[in-house]
Design brief:
The chain has 344 residues and is an alpha/beta fold. It has helices spanning 36-39, 47-69, 88-105, 114-126, 164-174, 182-189, 214-231, 236-269, 286-298, 308-311, 316-327; strands at 5-10, 15-22, 27-34, 78-84, 109-113, 132-137, 142-149, 152-158, 275-279, 302-304. The protein is built from eleven helices and ten strands. Helix 8 (236-269) packs parallel to helix 9. Bound molecules: 5'-O-[(R)-(carboxyoxy)(hydroxy)phosphoryl]adenosine and zinc ion (ZN).
Length: 344
């Protein structure tokens, strides 16, 4: 019966998160504990360390989510947990935690695809009607999806190699900026000339919505080395130009591919309330976001970017996807498994 409360659990990468969400879209709590400090010395997420940290922190996260929401397990109507895709150790930790609670309380258990969690977020934040177009753009993902229902996604294209966030992180590493690199590249880019260096716009000459970003870092490496050779080091102004030009190349590719994806969506779905939503850490980038906003406006679609804490990894989106799944009659048993690979 409505409204009901759902607990969400997320541990598929390097954030341990738990949340309580009400079925009318009210977020009662959303606790996220990152592991940046844990992995900082290794230059990337170490799966074994991540899994152990999740196992240690999940109970604490769940207790905190319940306390902040001012609720008890007995008042919930279900438990939603990320069952993949992601790092297997972390996903397993979350699934085991959720199963334990479901077993102890008798509450229904719902396994959620992490990507579906991201993709359904605009329904939680903006009550967006189906079907809408979604660009998922983070450190690990980059794809266009037409979202038609809680379990009905049509993939229009995506990256064939690196995700844009990954490319930003590599760009930052090459220019001796801190990790995660996106926000730092954006900050430095603000003082540079986006037209200074002509980086490639991969796959723009080919039809469709697929993208490629791995060539950009090679181009950046070459441009940086040329500068270093010429100036005997990298002057601040050139570093700013490199960041600005790199960001412009990513923005150009995302904008043009979004334009194409929107055209397919408008033509084939004929939506009555056309909407284009973005999610993922890269959606935090102002330059990229304003380009996407312009593209949406040009196609006559509403543009939606959920607030950043709900764009990046969190458990509120998992609870919400669980709410949508339970409403649609889905339910998982104690045999729910962890799926490291799980395309939508
Ligand atoms: O969605 P997210 O928090 O985590 C996953 O990848 O799942 O995204 C993190 C990624 C990182 O690669 C980070 O560098 C990038 O998003 N990012 C940005 C910005 N803020 C975060 N990239 C470009 N510009 C930004 N302002
Ligand atoms: Zn994610």
């Amino acid at each position: 019966c409505d409204p009901f409360l759902m607990l969400g659990i997320e541990s598929s990468c390097d954030d341990t998160a738990a949340a309580v969400v009400r079925s009318d879209g009210e977020i009662l709590s959303s606790e996220v504990t990152g592991q940046a400090a844990l992995h900082a010395a290794y230059g990337g997420v170490v799966p074994e360390l991540a899994a152990r940290a999740h196992a240690e922190r999940l109970d604490i996260a769940v207790e905190a989510a319940l306390a902040v929401a001012g609720t008890r397990l007995a008042e919930l109507s279900g438990i939603a947990v990320t069952a993949g895709p992601g790092l297997i150790g972390g996903v397993l930790s979350g699934v085991m935690c959720a199963k334990g609670i479901a077993f102890g309380t008798g509450l229904p258990l719902v396994g959620v695809n992490h990507l579906a969690g991201h993709a359904l977020t605009p329904r939680l934040t903006d009550h967006l009607p189906y079907p809408y177009l979604m660009l998922l753009v983070s450190g690990g993902h980059c794809q266009f999806l037409i979202v038609r229902g809680p379990d009905d996604f049509r993939r229009l294209g995506g990256t064939i190699d690196d995700a844009p966030g990954e490319a930003f992180d590599k760009c930052a590493r090459l220019l001796a900026l801190p990790q995660p690199g996106g926000p730092h590249v954006e900050r430095v880019a603000a003082g540079g000339d986006p037209g200074a260096i002509r980086f490639p716009r991969p796959l723009l000459d080919r039809p469709g919505c697929d993208m490629s970003f791995s060539g950009l870092k090679t181009a950046l490496l070459r441009a940086r080395d040329a500068d270093v050779a010429e100036h005997g080091g990298l002057p601040e102004r050139r570093r700013a130009d490199l960041c600005a030009s790199f960001q412009a190349a990513v923005a150009d590719v995302l904008a043009e591919k979004s334009r194409r994806a929107l055209a397919v969506y408008m033509e084939e779905e004929a939506p009555t309330a056309p909407s284009f939503a973005v999610a993922g850490g890269v959606a935090a980038n102002e330059a990229i976001r304003s380009r996407l906003e312009t593209v949406a406006a040009g196609a006559g679609a509403r543009f939606i970017a959920p607030p950043l804490p709900l764009c990046t990894d969190n458990a509120a989106m998992i609870a919400w996807a669980g709410i949508e799944r339970i409403r649609a009659g889905h339910r998982d048993g104690m045999d729910l498994g962890a799926r490291p690979r799980w395309p939508l």
